[in-house]
Amino acid sequence: MVRRRAGDAGGAPDVLDVSERFWSSGGERLDVDGAVLVRNPAAPGHPSGTFLTAVRTGSAEQLDRVLARCHDLVEGGCRRVVVDAATPPVVAAHLAVEDWTPTTQLHLVLPATAAVPAAGIAPRPLSTDEDWARATELFRADHLEEDARHVRSARPAAATAAAVALRRSLTPAATWFAVERDGGFVAMVAAWAGDGGTGVVEDVFVRPDARHAGLARELLRFAVGQARAGGAGPVLIGAETDDTPKHLYARFGFRPAAVGHSWVRGT
């Protein structure tokens, strides 16, 4: 399947391509016998940074060979396989037999024509080791809240550390910002201007004790402004299909565009 690059004349951005390029921007792409392995040395075990995509294997046996090759190239192997309209059905079928878990991600796009007021806050960019250590506390709170909502065991702290390492590897192309109050971080957001005309907003999180005061909306205004100042027109954001932030994003003006599908193991 040939995807049009986001921002090309004549159509809307391919949001799945934009999202993939965002998460793979800190790594490398390797052709692996009928698939592409995205490998991020900063977080080799994190499924958002190291994954298989463009999978075109025509049999279960060929897919097993690809996965075995990934074990040779990445410590612990590949934990996520992205499927799209051109992925042969046998891929998902075989992963299901092998007890991989299907996952979905909702992608929404704020049109380039959507006017967004200037933010009333000025989060500061993360730059130092201390900044990232404090941000890790927010990521940890986010992860624990998410695990509790899904009624599952809390992921280990090492998984949170890998998620933070992955994001830090995406800088300086993308920038993470934090809102600081009383000497601590209470909220964060990330912005990426993109490389094809479509930006990305990620990791909108407000600490529970700072919620219900409009801070999340201000973070969205700020991050969209940052992406557009860097040259973006439309702006992409992702949300879990079963979580409430998707409603906030829709009210803000983001429009549902696509649902991405993956299979993961080890979660």
UniProtKB/TrEMBL annotation:
Pfam families: Acetyltransf_1 (PF00583). Residues 121-267 form the N-acetyltransferase domain. Gene3D superfamilies: 3.40.630.30. It comes from the Bacteria. This is GNAT family N-acetyltransferase. CDD domains: NAT_SF. Signal peptide: none annotated. It comes from Pseudonocardia humida.
